Amino acid sequence: MTDQPTPERVTAERAEPERDLPDVLGEYVPRSAVALTDAQRWPTQTVAGERALRAVREHPHAPEWVHECGDRLDAGDLAALADLAADYASRGDRGPRARAGFEPAAPPAQPDQPEWVGALVRRVHASVPRYRRIARLHGLDPAALGPLADVAPIGRAELAGGAAGGLADLVPVDVELDRLIEGSSSGSTGSALVIALHPRSVAGDLMLLRHLLRGVGVEWRPEPGRLALASVVAQDAAFTYASTMSAFGHAPMARVNLDPGGWRRPGDREAFLAATDPQVITTSPWPLLELADLDADLHPLAVVSGAAALTPAARARVRDRWGVPVLDLYGLRETGPLAVSTDGGPHVLVPRRIHVEILDPAGTPVADGVRGEIVVTVDDNPYLPLLRYRTGDVAALVHTPAGPALAGLEGREPVRLRRGDGAWSDCINATQLLQAHGLLGWRLHQLAGGDLTLAALGGDPAAARLSLERLLDQPVTVTPVATSAGLGAGKPRRYTSDLPGGA
């Protein structure tokens, strides 16, 4: 490492590609906002780590990096993360391997709250502005509190701000803010959120990922000359950067955008990915399908998909392409990872300080196996402890051989479809049909008159149309699309409705 690390190195020899970005997307212009030096981004950087970082940043086929990002981990963080990794390792290879169905004598999936939840309720009411006001208003003694059921759920509106409060209303008053970093949630079904994060909490997800991979037989260790991890997106404008993971031997990683406009020359995208050959790929279903179709010689150890539902056909496509485990990881930016499916079965709750409830629209817990809204309590991020946070996602909590799991998970889509006779059909019924016909992805919309339009990627759209018409007794118009872009920008919702009561 040099004695005087330089901020934001730009390689002048290579011409920047022309990007026709709107003014409102100025933050995606390469290095438009420089704030930290490399020494500040990676306080514990090693000579080998810096060398690996430079090799990725300055690779002849690299994209035009538009951002700089480091993990900000100090020596204390690395020690704590090493302890966390050791704790996960002590669990052996007992990673989640959920299978569909119930055990004959399954214990309740919604157990009594663990001890740490009661302690969190008391701490939050003593230190978080929103809950301190509630305690004062009702004359409550925070030290005497405990039952989670007495706490009213909150949701995205409380984080988004305005009359509902905002992020600052949920950050404890007794935490030092000098380590705070900002994350963001895309807002694909609402306004975007800015999330307060701690570097150690973010890096903890990496330790969890290693544990989950070990559970499917993958021993993930850094390998010289390869990216340890590639985070892959496919969108018109995106933050892209090269970085190193201090808690993973300072191994290199990168966030790359498959959109051709983010690369300097034709062929650079495939050449860069093949040359850096990422060990683990994290992405979402649509970029994953694009990546699987690229003419790039990749040899991943595993693929991790998130942000949207991974269909069985998409999972099979990836397994056929690379023959490696595919993890479907469910979580939100504000909550962190919550559950994982390794085989297309229910999503098993991950071993973090999370407590999951399933509530009906009135906020009442439902019985095991009954679908409702996923509501989570999380004590993993010192800047954002969450009590009964409504995710907006729907599932049933069931018991599997691997532990409590979310079955029938539909992300942010509590949509009903109206049948021809006026009765309602849960969108999960359509999901099962469309998956059975091999669709890689879809967007199903019901018009105010009851007719439906289906944009279908892959599979057998004609057969899917017939099945939907039999299910709903409503006319269905199908539009086959060749790529995921035909389903909409960003993370398109799979179901939408113009009908009152449909969404």
TrEMBL record:
Gene3D superfamilies: N-terminal domain of ligase-like (3.40.50.12780). Residues 297-376 form the AMP-dependent synthetase/ligase domain. SUPFAM superfamilies: Acetyl-CoA synthetase-like. Residues 1-25, 91-113, 482-503 are annotated as: Disordered. Residues 10-22 have a biased composition (Basic and acidic residues). Pfam families: AMP-binding. This is AMP-binding protein. The lineage of its organism: Bacteria, Bacillati, Actinomycetota, Actinomycetes, Micrococcales.
